[in-house]
Amino acid sequence: MNRLSQMLLAGAAIACLAAVPAKAEIVIGAALNLTGIQAPMDEPGFRGAQVAIKELNDAGGLLGEPVKLVTIDGKSDPVTVGNATVQLIDDGAQLILAPCDFDFGSPASREAQAADLVGLSTCASDPLYSSWSLGDKQFTLSMWNTTMGATAADFALEKGWKKAYVVTDQFIAYTKSLPKYFIEQFKAGGGEILLEDSYNNGDNDFSAQLARLQALPEKPDVIFLSSYGTDIGTIIRALREVGYDAPVLGGDAYDDPALHQALGEKFGNDVYFVTHTWAGPDAGPEMQHFLKLYKEMYGQEPDTSFVATGYDAVMLLAEAVKAAGSTDGAAVAQALEEGQFKLLTGELDYTTADEGHMPNKAAAVIALNGGKTSFVGWRRPETVPAP
Asked: How much is the pLDDT for 282?
């Protein structure tokens, strides 16, 4: 065989190889924040998502194809999250997992919407995370702050705590809207707000607020503190050190083992927070199954409910893809709107896009005493404030 014939045959072989399609797979792109201030919410969710991916693939994949999770660290920076999502979509992602917050997660959902893909935040709770502001293919797994705030208010009133001091951290949409809904529900139930105060995340100085609190003619029955990150511990310590031993209430940002450890036995008492689920067997039989899988993968028990949000987000997308029969954005969005889902984080159904894709969902109440958490129970308010 002469050299020209060999070259022609080689070229034909290369052409044949190029014509063989790559192995089909369903790709979920995740621009989660694995580092930075948002990592305590997103990194556990990433771990939970990995458990779900393995479970799906062990059972044969999705629509007969393996499922792949591709993650790029958003680094707790909204611009980086948006750019990472563009890269994920360019690289073939068919579904998008967005970070656990409106400020940090909305750039991912905006890019998903622009590409006609379904985007799902693992746990953004501000009502801004809606189809109204992000588009008809965008959802969040979390309850909205309307439910989170109302649950906290109802719990306080149920305990007989009638007078509240409220602190609003001006950090992000989440910290600003959560106390708004707490206050509305608390007042509607007969509670009284003694003082609404403000704090700026990163100040690490609560002395001005303490002076205003100490100037009140009476002490509050409960303190509702809406803050984020390490500032939560700083404020609780400041309150306890000057003798304010009233129960402290908050949202899911408290669901951080580093915070519980920082408060410890001395300061980690009479603290309650509303979050997504309880990472223990008494949360339900589905949780027992997840805990077994999680321990097999990581060799230890989860220490925050955020692991369940990542697992649920992947499994929710999988159920919707099965119902739709494809990863087509419009079909998957319709399946999410029409479905009713039983998850580790509670039963969930969404309203229509015209109604905001509001997640109808229960909440879990957790207590912190002696620096250790315990499960108070599931709560679903009979009424919630309008978003």
From this structure: 86
What is the chain's mean pLDDT, rounded?
93
Find residue 300's DSSP bridge partners: none
Gap between the Cα atoms of 374 and 269, Å rounded: 12
pLDDT tens by residue, 317-365:
999 999 999 999 999 999 999 999 999 999 999 999 999 999 999 999 9
- Cβ-based burial of 243 (10 A; exposed 0-12, middle 13-18, buried ≥19): exposed
Report CA torsion sign: 343, 132, 224, 254. Answer: positive
pLDDT surpassing 70 at residue 8:
no
Residues near 335 by beta carbon (within 8 Å), at least 6 away in sequence: 319, 320, 321, 323, 324
* Mean pLDDT, residues 3-10 taken together: 37
CA 223 to chain CA mean position, Å: 24
Q: Is 204 helix (H, G, I), strand (E, B) or coil?
A: coil
Q: Where are the domains of the chain?
A: 26-142+281-356, 146-275+366-379
User: Is 81 in contact with 74 (CB distance < 8 Å)?
Assistant: yes
Assess if CATH 1.20.1050.10 describes domain 146-275+366-379: no
pLDDT at 2 exceeding the cut of 60: no
Give yes or no for a contact between 252 and 275, defined as CB atoms under 8 angstroms apart.
yes
Give the angle subtended at the CA of 279 by the CAs of 106 and 183, to the nearest 5°. Answer: 55
**Cβ 344 vs Cβ 286: under 8 Å:** yes
